[in-house]
Design a protein that fits this description.
mainly alpha; transducer
């Protein structure tokens, strides 16, 4: 029983806790970048009008013919700086996630194998004897899959934000930057269990089906013996 608790609960819990922290940070960053993209055009206009107000208060007068050109230049320069900053932060988050997955690829795979074996053994042992371990082990699998699904959803939201950032109002250079960002965003952020399967809600349901299938097969075999 002690060994079962250690393998089914303690080891996976430590790996999961670290993944939740890092993946949660990455997910939050992606959601923040998505919000920034959605409001980028409006923020650029507000920044321009703020500069106009400050210059007017300082006694500076504008030529209407020049003002339109300056407006477009100022707005697009603001957008360019923020797009470059978003690209850098997006790349940083991608690299962080890849490094974490490279380090913990084997650990996640081992965790899932242990959890699947542990859950199957607990079912064979009878729920009346393993009613404490069962919910915890299922929660471990669910939390890993929920973490992976959160990253996928955040990446999809970032991709949608690129479409919704009013890029049609940008100049050609900024449009090209958005196109580059869109191509990069289509490389979906994912966490995998040793490269075998991508952690998501679909993965969670597949694991539950696998555990139940293994349990019914072993139970029927044991009943025949």
């Amino acid at each position: 029983m002690s060994a079962g608790v250690a393998f089914t609960c303690y080891v996976p819990a430590n790996v999961t806790a670290l993944l939740i922290v890092i993946a949660g940070y990455t997910e939050a960053q992606m959601l923040a970048l998505s919000e920034e993209l959605c409001h980028l055009w409006d923020d650029a206009q507000q920044n321009y009008f703020k500069e106009i107000t400050q210059n007017t208060n300082n006694g500076r007068h504008f030529d209407p013919a020049v003002e339109v050109t300056d407006k477009n230049k100022t707005i697009n320069e603001y957008i360019k700086l923020h797009l470059i900053d978003i690209i850098k932060r997006h790349a940083t988050n991608l690299n962080l996630l890849r490094q974490v997955e490279d380090v913990f690829r084997g650990a996640i795979a081992a965790e899932f194998v242990l959890l699947i074996c542990g859950l199957t053994a607990e079912l064979l042992g009878g729920l009346e004897n393993t009613y404490i371990e069962m919910p915890f082990a299922i929660m471990q699998v669910g939390m890993d899959c929920l973490t992976g699904q959160g990253l996928i959803d955040a990446n999809v939201k970032f991709e949608n934000a690129l479409y919704d950032c009013k890029w049609e109002n940008f100049d050609v250079k900024n449009m090209k930057i958005v196109l580059l960002m869109l191509q990069n965003s289509q490389k979906t952020m994912t966490l995998s269990a040793g490269g075998i399967t991508i952690l998501s809600f679909s993965c969670f349901m597949s694991i539950i089906r696998l555990i139940y299938s293994a349990y019914t097969t072993l139970r029927s075999t044991l009943d025949l013996m």
